[in-house]
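Changelog excerpt

This revision adds worked examples to the README so contributors can see how folded entries look when concatenated. The first example is reproduced verbatim below.
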Amino acid sequence: MYLRFALPELDEHSGHKLGIFQAAYRLKDSGGLPPWDESRLKECTRWFTVHLPVPACYKQGSVQSICWFKQDAQDCVERIWDVVWLLKEHGFNPVMLTTARPGAIVYEDVFQVAAIPWRKYGLQAQPV
């Protein structure tokens, strides 16, 4: 099983739900965060910058693929909840998506896969 945290709105590049990291950077760039929340968000994103590899396809500028956490990437999944709660506190409505079939996998590491979604894939969306 694979997990993805996203917002209900569509990303203009992929045509799929806006990813949680894009939402976090949007919140950070909004300029309206109190200093303590800005610090929390920086700490969260810094942890992922250090511990979660950027898929090679993203480094090459391809945004057609979507990243999914592997279910057993416990550190990542636990840490992403901090980002989810920050987003919720500031009026965003993230959802958790799960699927066994993320699409055609174009990148994989121990924490995640990047996949180009198939037209129909079995997603389960849960509000968080």
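The second example, added in the same revision:
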Amino acid sequence: MPSSILLRAQFVYQNYDGFARCPVFAVSLARAMTSDINLSKADPQTQEFIWPVAKDTLPVCFDSIPNSGYPVISSLEVRPVPEGAYVGGLGGSEKFLRKVYQINCDSTNVSLL
């Protein structure tokens, strides 16, 4: 079993139910609240976490917020992280890393002077 995993979740609403009411909900891993998902601000939305694991299971919970629609998820990827990677960033078994933003470094859009 790896010491850490990459957990990537994608949330897509796109008015699939015809109610035009983007859901807002919270996501928790094990007993830790990890993020709030507000699909009225960004739809679709992707969240990524590096999470230390000690068991073969990881409880993932989508916590509904009253009068804010029903939680939705489109994909959930779980991948092992190489042994020893991100050890300094995790700082212990009760900590996790969360991607805050991502920069696209695509070389096809770079203009050279």
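Reviewer comment on example two: The mean pLDDT is 78. Helices lie at 87-90.
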